[in-house]
């Protein structure tokens, strides 16, 4: 149950991204600053945490061991995840982006065959390709149905162009996040904790954030004090607290695709938290009765995931990995 609780807390802090990205857009801030400043602020914060805990040297040794793997998967897990989300904020409200982001629930299940798991058999350890947990896909689809109902009740106010430019980048980001996260988990093989892994991925993707900040400086000038302070808040709430909580939850659930899917399903809470945040901070309309029905389906699906994850999942027949 603890991984589920960590996942829910992560979704609460993650939801700050969708709300604060909207406030930065409304204040006229460049979306490239919105994307880059989060990580540029996050790196020194995490450096301090890791250094105080005396875990910098193991992280540096791990990154030097496989530098290109760190750069490549960090670019996908952080870069391809966050840049499209910030771009989408130019075209859609935060609650709708938060809803579209929940495609990461199903994405986390569908990317399972991209990974191998070591299993012990009478013939010795074998590598097998992970399988898609179709029961988990069914429960995740219930959550997505609730999300789609909630968003459909208000999405009619947006143009087709805005829906496309807002939704498609977020769907891409939703697949990139679990793929990059799990690949880095596999590369680290339990040698690093969540703080180290997040810092390592942020450092490995640093060239991207510096490039985006340079482009933003060239075309828009320096960021305003308001945008900088809000980006710092996103770095602390979403980039530091939420990311570490979520990575810690996935670390607890690693080795079980079913439990990992349950942890990733908790991120559906972002829709509810983002909606509440926008209602409190921004002049957006209240959710309709249809939207409330969608929220109920989201919460119901999360509860079912949590309950099912507590049951013993049968281990599938061992099949040596040959791909």
- Low-pLDDT residue spans: 312-323
The count of β-strands is 2
Q: What is the topology, as strand order, of the major beta sheet? A: 1-2
Q: What form results from the Cα inertia axes? A: globular
- The domain tally reads 1
Q: What integer value in Å does the Rg equal? A: 20 Å
Percentage of residues assigned to helices: over 70%
Folded structure, characterized:
By secondary structure, the protein is mainly α. The protein has one domain (2-309). Helices cover 76% and strands 4% of the residues. It is built from 14 helices and two strands, in the order H-H-H-H-H-H-E-E-H-H-H-H-H-H-H-H. The chain has helices spanning 2-26, 31-52, 56-65, 67-88, 94-101, 103-110, 134-155, 160-188, 194-204, 206-220, 225-253, 257-265, 269-281, 289-309, and strands at residues 116-121, 124-129. The protein has a two-stranded antiparallel ribbon with strand order 1-2. Helix 5 runs antiparallel to helix 13 (269-281), helix 6 packs antiparallel against helix 7 and helix 9 (194-204) crosses helix 11. It starts with a helix and ends in a 14-residue tail after the last helix. Mean pLDDT is 81; it is low at 312-323.
